[in-house]
Amino acid sequence: MNTALTESKLEAHAEAGMKHQAAIPQYSLPMILFMFAWPAAWFMFLIWVVSPLFFGTPAPGEFISTWLFFGIATLGNAAELIVALVVLRREGYRLTLRDLRDRARLRWPRGWRKWSLVLVALAVYALSIVLSPLNEALAKVPGFTPPAWWPPMTNPTVEVTAPEDLFPDIVLAGNYLFLAVFLVYGFIFNIVGEELYYRGMLLPKMRGVFGKWDWVANGILFELKHVYQRWTWGAGIFNSIAFALLGGPVGSVLLSGLLHWTGSFLLGLIAGLPLIFGGG
Q: What CA–CA distances, in Å, run from 187 to 35, 94, 101, 125, 264?
């Protein structure tokens, strides 16, 4: 009896969710492509125009400053976050977790079918780790080779054997300011900004063009959006598909954000904390 009631509630919830999603204004194909293209153009403008104009080009053998890199990334992701909030507000939603829970899929999965897809997403994400050598191979292809000054964080041509290698110009021991910036940028701007924009706001508006494969299109276009670091496309496409699977069929942007943050920041944070608090 309890099981039947539970299944009935889940079905009712799913039906209500489908009706809610059907009411979301849909984008045309040109608009969808534009919504992926402008962030790529904005990032490239910051990297290739603003940065050298105000800070110059690093000397041979040097990397771009870690602080500058975080600044560029923050401005890029902040723009995505702001646009996502503006679009959602124009759709008539108040910018509260309660109002955005269903629209932006800020919820946990319901039912065993959804959780089984979570396992599939984790398996797809694992492929990005196993196939990470693809990035090194891709970085050797003309047109995909990163600039010599590109930071080690996303530069497969640089050997990284310890957390210090990721930030060669930063002294990690006792650097609590760096830790704070790393946490704020990593969670608020990169994860919340990208997940709310691409999976929360944009993905539900792609159903009208791509149908049930909207999540696949979202994952592919999200990866292509990172054209400014295209040498990571080899393994990165599996990350993007995993995030889109969680944000789409699974219906949980909370989980896609959690996986995104775990892979991009949490593991590095765990490795770096002993250096920051232990002094080496």
A: 22, 22, 19, 19, 10
